[in-house]
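Shall we go through a protein fold together, starting from nothing but its sequence? Please make up or recall a protein chain and show it to me in full. Go ahead whenever you are ready, and we will take it from there.
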Amino acid sequence: MTEILTRDAVDVVLADFFESRIRRADPLAAHYALLWRRLARSSVGGKRLRPRLLLDTHRAFGAPHPEDAAVAGAAFELLHTALLLHDDVIDRDVSRRGQRNLPAEFAADAADAGLTPEAASSWGDASGILGGDLLLSATYALVARVRPVIRGELTELIDEHLFRAAAGEHDDVAFGLGTAPATSESVLRMMANKTAGYSFAAPLCAGAVLAEAGERAAAELEQVGLALGVLYQLRDDLLGVFGDSRTGKSTISDLRQGKRTLLVAFAEGHPEWTAVRHLWGDPELDEAGAGRLRAALTAAGAYAAMTELIETQRQEAVATIDRTTLPNGLRHELVGLATRLAERAA
């Protein structure tokens, strides 16, 4: 049932939204219309995780006003796409879901037109930043369509978690540059703010808000969402180095960026890691060098420690779910989700 609602209702809202924006952009400039067409394409191919969480929660509490749930689910998907676009610019990434991302597409256009590499990169970055800004604005434009009685609460929920996501992103950049200490505690806080809040806690709470399920349900879902989101990010960081690149997720990007994750923190100080640490953060890192880094992370016990932490976090997430008073069907779905997040390959 949830899959049908996600595919048919949310995707219809998204398709109508992008068609309208492309139509409005066409008379303004060809490259602006192209930006909107590429934004539409950027929203295709994801897991639709956030709309599914929202719809599952909304359905568990009776699924009133389904049209509002579809619009809100689409708003969360736009929010996610916006933050991915900004993240790609910040991290200097050129691919997303196994394909060239939007900034890289515009940079390639500029390079093909004869612009210098620096100018082409600037055009790509500007397109990514503006595209993300447009989708952030559109997130609130969609939320404005829901019924007035819950519109304000939903808007405040999104604003709060976007505020936290920016704090988490700022932390992430600071850790990578060395302008803030990356302790285990601060890295876990960054995960909760940057990913867990807007990706898990917010859509779960939004489903409760849309169903007018009450403050207790929203508070419980906030805690569940944060636990699940940290679990998701821990697994994501492991896959970012030890995953299968055939799934479309890069397994070298985090190593090239020198991304400060708990996986790296677990290896710090070990002779095997120290011997190759100079390769970590090398923008020219090749697969051979990445292989040496992976071998050192394994020898240092970091891979095993990360795997153990993921299982511990899964158990904590399940315990958090079990302590709630949420509807039994929703609790069962969330426990199953915890297992899938801990074991996912992509």
Summary: Residues 143 and 155 are 7 Å apart (CA to CA). The mean pLDDT is 95.
